[in-house]
Design goal:
Length: 86
């Protein structure tokens, strides 16, 4: 595989794993409840995504930066909603 093909795989993977958080955020907003979410798990996941974003920045990988940047925004939003509606 060429470097461009590898980066394309990363972009597709990042898009799929990022978009999976959108329904969760929308569900919490709609139901105004986040009781079923674990605060510890969501916090650890958000911290991990932040570290993946830093890693992507250090590597200069557009796929890692874009996907983890968006995932971090969604994960942080879900964490805030958990704290608000938890």
């Amino acid at each position: 595989m060429s470097p461009d093909q590898i980066e394309a795989v990363g972009i597709v993977a990042g898009t799929l794993t990022t978009l999976c958080w959108l329904p969760q955020a929308l569900r919490i907003l709609k139901s105004r409840s986040a009781e079923d979410l674990s605060l510890v798990t969501q916090s650890a996941f958000t911290a991990g995504i932040l570290l993946w974003l830093v890693y992507g920045i250090v590597l200069g990988s557009p796929a890692l930066i874009a996907s983890n940047g968006v995932t971090l925004a969604l994960s942080t939003a879900i964490l805030v909603l958990k704290l608000k509606f938890g």
